[in-house]
Amino acid sequence: MESGQRALRRGRHSQAGQVYLLTAVTLQRQPWFRDDAAARAAARSFGSQASLGDARLLAWVLMPDHAHWLLELGERDALAQVVRRIKSFSARSANAALQRLGPVWSEAYHDHALRREEDLRAVARYIVMNPLRAGLVQRLGDYPYWNAIWL
């Protein structure tokens, strides 16, 4: 039987210009990002050029124990490289804010390549509405850890 991580990687491919919906969870679903300083630090790192390379972040939300990213892959880097960098930069930033060492993110992540006919704005709305569905806030504007290029 395949391990969970190996099964997730089976069939994974990177295609330049492809838009992916990505989900990563924290290690053992620890709610590291309930801490505002850690959440702010991680959120700042998501959009950094060093983190993204030539990929483009279209929308994202950071929840207490997971994150969703809508990402358009660039020409240079494979999907796994970009995700590894996003998780690495955000983990280092969060750890500095939390004054701790050690892993923040689970090694695995889920990706879904969007089909051309899928409405990117609808997917972005779904992503950024996570805090409302989770009951963290009553209005999206009250939740600070999200962004979308259309909003």
TrEMBL record:
SMART domains linked to this entry: Y1_Tnp (SM01321)
Domain of life assignment: Bacteria
Signal peptide: none
GO terms assigned for molecular function: sequence-specific DNA binding; transposase activity
InterPro entries linked: RAYT_transposase (IPR052715), Transposase_17 (IPR002686), Transposase_17_sf (IPR036515)
Swiss-Prot/TrEMBL GO biological process terms: DNA transposition
Residue ranges occupied by any Transposase IS200-like domain in the UniProt entry: 15-130
Pfam families in the record: Y1_Tnp (PF01797)
The protein, known as: Transposase
